[in-house]
Design goal:
Organism: Xanthoceras sorbifolium
Structural class: alpha/beta
InterPro entries: AB_hydrolase_1, AB_hydrolase_fold
Shape: globular
Number of domains: 1
CATH superfamily: Alpha/Beta hydrolase fold, catalytic domain
Protein name: AB hydrolase-1 domain-containing protein
Pfam families: Abhydrolase_6
Strand content: 15-25%
CATH class: Alpha Beta
Helix content: 25-40%
Order of helices and strands: HHEEHEEEEHEHEHEHHHHEHEHH
Strand order of the largest sheet: 3-4-7-6-8-9-10-11
Radius of gyration: 19 Å
Length: 362
Amino acid sequence: MVLIHCLQCSPFELVKMVALKWVCSPATPMGGRVRRECGSLRGGGGLVKVLGDGSDCGGGSGFPWFLPKEVEKIKDPFARNLAQRIERLPVQTGFSESCIMSSCVKPQIKSEMSPVVLLHCFDSSCLEWRCAYFLLEEAGIEAWAIDILGWGFSDLESLPPCNVASKRYHLYQLWKSHIKRPMILVGPSLGAAVAIDFAVNYPEAVEKMILINPSVYAEGTGNLAKLPKLVAYAGVSLLKSVPIRLYANILAFNGIPLSKKLDWTNVGRLHCHMPWWEDATVSFMVSGGYNVVSQIKQVRQKTLIICGELDQIVSNLFAERLQSELPNSIIRKIPDCGHLPHVEKPNHVVKLIAALARGDDW
């Protein structure tokens, strides 16, 4: 299919860009944070402190002001709860004179285990971790759900470049400013390419990696990088449409009721309502995107590959190929599961993440 190398990443993300085939065959931080210790518990890998931040963006007190108003329409309770936890942190990148207020979900616990940093798929957001995030906290994991530059809910009104180099450096500066310890970096689908690119360029920041249904063999955005801007914007505007997003959900999940797929469609396209989203997406598209094939054998971190056995988007054969090419890796398959195990089978994924964080033997 022509789309395989068109947009980057997996056919799951590419199906969102089928629109392109049809076309061409405010920004201030929330109030200051007051951090307080609320108690402690003992997780699976050592003493864990539970932290609060004194903000009003968690619990039942409402959503952060900067989220699109469409968040109110979402019914999924896990998505709503996680959305209430999203905040913006200052990240100095040098792209502009001021910091980029960058969206993420910060952990409420401090663990002796390495922090786990959760990336997301192409054109997605931290809400992708809605089903697994709270399970990770219950397991005593210090988890950060990060929005990659150009996607999610950051303040990008003064649009920075959204190419691979900018995404990589933004993540590094966020890590350097706020996380500050070697991390376990988790990347699903195209997020696996983001993780590999980052780990090779900043090995001191990454202790281990977890790659979920990794899409790492596409060679960038291909001919989409050469589209005239007018055509690119026309195609991108269709990317956020309900039919395209719903079709992606139908491909991605097995045995999910239509009503839930519709609601998850609204979750998956929420960030598309950000005023800068189209500009950022076009910026990424014309930049050429991720091509990490030559970097795979440079990875030195211990790596766990997770894949759903019923993935209709990225063949398990690619995960097996990746496992054979990564010097220090193993693969674990989840039965009766499609492209997004962390959404469809979160308990399985959390057990695997927790085991790696604890340092359990392969």
